[in-house]
Amino acid sequence: MSGKGVGLRPIVAIRAVSRHGGGGPSGRSGPNSSGCWSGRRQGSMAPRYFHMLALAAGLLLIFATVPRSKSQRSRRYMETSRIPSRFSQEESAEMKEALKGAIQIPTVSFSSTESNTTALAEFGEYIRKVFPRLFSTSFIQHEVVGEYSHLFTVRGTDPSLQPYMLLAHLDVVPAPEEGWEVPPFSGLERDGFIHGRGTLDNKNSVMATLQALQLLLIRNYIPQRSFFIALGHDEEVSGLHGAQKISALLQARGVQLAFVVDEGSFILDGFIPSLKTPFAIRIAVSEKGAIDLRLQVNMTPGHSSAPPKETSIGILAAALSRLERTPMPNLFGKGTLMMTLKQLANEFPFPTNIILNNLWLFRPLVSRFLERNYMTNALIRTTTALTMFQAGIKTNVIPPVAQATVNFRIHPAQTVQEVLELVKNTVADDRVQLQVLRAFDPLPISPSDDQALGYQLLRQTIQSVFPEVNTVTPGICIGNTDSRHYTNLTSGIYRFNPLYLQPQGFSSIHGINEKISVQAYETQVKFIFEFIQNADLDKEPVPHLHEL
């Protein structure tokens, strides 16, 4: 069917010019490499082709006439002051042993009112022993906040540069030993992996951050830009006594941050089988909100020999079933995911690349496809998870009370109140009482343009440490992190864990057999080692030439 006169946009063909430009690392160069222009009338393409050449020449002229003094300063700094991220065998062995020792301390948060405080105190002593330079350097101040959280203030030499913050948390979720290949708090090394609770969430980040800073100090590094390292002790139970208190303390001191970097996303590998290369789909620029909702049914108890038509368990189970069978609305197109897929389009083979380059036409198809996978489904809607159920006191007694707790993770396009209204309409039974135990809205979306310092520093460091990763994109974090407590200090909050993550690894977080490869952990240390130095290179992000 012709598009003439009906307002239809033409379907975009595979782009002929590589997004790397020229003979870039993809190996795709020039108009003939894609096959789009070959066999067509060359004359009809000439005006557009020359227009593109003129535009490219103009861009080159713009960049050529940028004053050079600033770029020369950056180049000189890199040439004379940058410390290579190369570690000796002894240093590699020490960082590995340090992580293993950290895993062996069971810093478990059981609930908002119960945690292993003995282990938390022990962990504080442990980092003093393993990272002595951090506690003896004159320009580093260490404070204990909320009894067990740690705040390091690293004072830079240039007070005109706005400080930033690196976040991590030292508490972990419980880890019953059943199903584990090795004891969860053994820190055992086997087949090139360190096993144990916290190897991915999130003692790896705690130890890698401190390790990277100590290695820099050993090499006589002095930062230009000040920064903070905040290590919360209760992130797994909302961070109210750790991160929230650190945030309040800094706010009282008048601190404003350029940006914050926390956990919350990985370099995803194997989640989308047809994707040509691994990709950092999420430098997460936002994170979902959450509701913990208690549903309760009360009834008069009685003898099971003469039961009523419905019991409290039956009523509640029916309500929960309705919630599971009625998912929240599909919100694909409202958020960052559509932009992410557009940026990734040319990393896919035919015909997926055509589909993703024309989401204006294929959006309903892509939306239904995303619903089929539990990971991508979490990116397009508010999720509903039935996590706790309690009822019954004896086999022959009609239960007086049935209770369940449901955890909702709220899509950035929705609010707490909107989700609660949908829940009420779905349950549609006045006998089921609803009680909000905890709730907060999704976080605002942080900037990811060329002027977003934190985002661009992460992007640049990813491309340095992981050159095989072609595409860095913004996204959302489907979990919740301590970073949500720092919105009063900055509008730039980014979540990225510099690790490859396969589907099996994702399942181990809060699950069983959590582990990290020794090589991956050393790479994480290297990433932070380089990132801290990159934050010193200049006052503004390096210009990024967008694909046209």
Automatic annotation (TrEMBL):
Residues 18-39 are annotated as: Disordered. The keyword Hydrolase applies. The chain crosses the membrane at residues 49-66. Pathway: Lipid metabolism; fatty acid metabolism; Amino-acid metabolism. GO terms for biological process: adaptive thermogenesis; amide biosynthetic process; amide catabolic process; amino acid metabolic process; lipid metabolic process; proteolysis. Zn(2+) 2 binds at H169, D201, D262. Zn(2+) 1 binds at D201, E236, H510. It holds the Pfam family Peptidase_M20. Keywords: Hydrolase, Membrane, Metal-binding, Protease, Transmembrane, Transmembrane helix, Zinc. GO terms for cellular component: extracellular region. Its EC number is 3.5.1.114, 3.5.1.14. The keyword ATP-binding does not apply. Secreted enzyme that regulates the endogenous N-fatty acyl amino acid (NAAs) tissue and circulating levels by functioning as a bidirectional NAA synthase/hydrolase. It condenses free fatty acids and free amino acids to generate NAAs and bidirectionally catalyzes the reverse hydrolysis reaction. Some of these NAAs stimulate oxidative metabolism via mitochondrial uncoupling, increasing energy expenditure in a UPC1-independent manner. Thereby, this secreted protein may indirectly regulate whole body energy expenditure. PANTHER family: N-FATTY-ACYL-AMINO ACID SYNTHASE/HYDROLASE PM20D1, N-FATTY-ACYL-AMINO ACID SYNTHASE_HYDROLASE PM20D1. This is N-fatty-acyl-amino acid synthase/hydrolase PM20D1. It comes from Oryctolagus cuniculus.
